[in-house]
Amino acid sequence: MQGEQQQEAAAETVSSSDAPEDGPGDAVDVSQNISDADAFKILLEMKMKKRHKEPSLPSTVTELATEEGSKVYVVGTAHFSDSSKRDVVKTIQEVQPDVVVVELCQYRVSMLKMDEKTLLKEAKEINLEKLQQAIKQNGVMSGLMQMLLLKVSAHITEQLGMAPGGEFREAFKEASKVPFCKFHLGDRPIPVTFKRAIAALSFWQKVKLAWGLCFLSDPISKDDVEKCKQKDLLEQMMAEMIGEFPDLHRTIVSERDIYLTYMLKQAAKQIELPRASEAEPRKCIPAVVVGVVGMGHVPGIEKNWNTDLNIQEIMSVPPPSTSSKILRFVIKATVFGLMGYGCYRIGQRTVRLILSMPTAQNCLQKLAEIRPRHSTSC
């Protein structure tokens, strides 16, 4: 079941500084006599006291609820925005969630633990090594598409001097400060998204989209980013370029809306309270969840919230089309052809260079002199 495959990137307990302020002797006695179940209950009570019944939330937060009474606070963000970072921090501090879900998959989780300087450098650099890795992970066409989208992200990064995903890193940090808070990756794996996106396009649509992405150069200001709090900047730029490709919009945006909604619902299942013994009956309470997603996904999540969702279909990868196979063959043939021609040219120049050396000329001259002598002796 897909819900069981949610990945927990962080689940840390509260630090000792958040414990009740007792004397040193009392603290030692408590730590020696208290059971694990009682300690869990104490920390849970502390968490509940910090949780505001009527939290003061930013305007970018949408509140949803499940039939079981769980609450989900969806923070709509712009991926390149300091304001979004503050919104995420405030929301987590106010509601003290049981689970935090972010719009990331396992292929992008590394950005959570990288520092801003390294991320900024990585986001700006698109090299052959990254291209090879993308093709190895996703195939030729999907890999090329991923690199083109990285180029869009790199363009924004260069224009703003700001690394993407700051709101996700803030969510990761804040979740680690909340007792027993789990951290889930809620986005569909990026290889599946790209492969489905490529399969949805005809050959000429792929060429046209690639051309538009390659020649992206419009300047972007920080004001433009904040204006896009109503719609994520990266997704807005993509929407402008793929507006004439409804199937591409469906795979990149609409299907991911469904997947994100499904994962938020899975995270919002009731949580079980600790028991002092096996004989004690199980008791469950509604969960509190914070979702951190691009603002462009919020309307789709609201739309799908009360719908029974099945994500099997949107997780399947269709077989490559005939045009994709032909294009893959042409690209490979071109690459190998260029490599072969390059080796030929390099080899030709190398031979000429060796033959032009005095030592090589002397050897050839001696060989030329030896041959006539050998012929005469025979």
UniProtKB/TrEMBL annotation:
Q: Where is this region: Disordered?
A: 1-33
A Gene Ontology molecular function term of the record: mitochondrion-mitochondrion outer membrane tether activity
Kindly give the InterPro entries that the UniProt entry links to this protein.
Answer: TraB/PrgY/GumN_fam (IPR002816), TraB_PrgY-like (IPR046345)
Which residue ranges have biased composition labelled Low complexity?
A: 1-12
Tell me which Pfam families the record gives: TraB_PrgY_gumN
Q: Name one GO cellular component term.
A: mitochondrial outer membrane
Q: Alphabetically, which GO biological process terms does the record hold?
A: mitochondrial fusion
From the Swiss-Prot or TrEMBL record, give the protein name.
TraB domain containing
Which species? Sphenodon punctatus (Tuatara)
Lineage, broadest ranks: Eukaryota, Metazoa, Chordata, Craniata, Vertebrata
